[in-house]
Amino acid sequence: MPPAPVKAAPPPLPTWEILPRDRSVRTALERWTASAGWQLSWELAVDYPVVARTSISGTFETAVEAVAQSLERAEVPVKAVMYRGNRVLRIVAKGSE
Question: Which InterPro entries does the UniProt entry name for this protein (predicted)?
Answer without folding.
Answer: Pilus_synth_Q_C
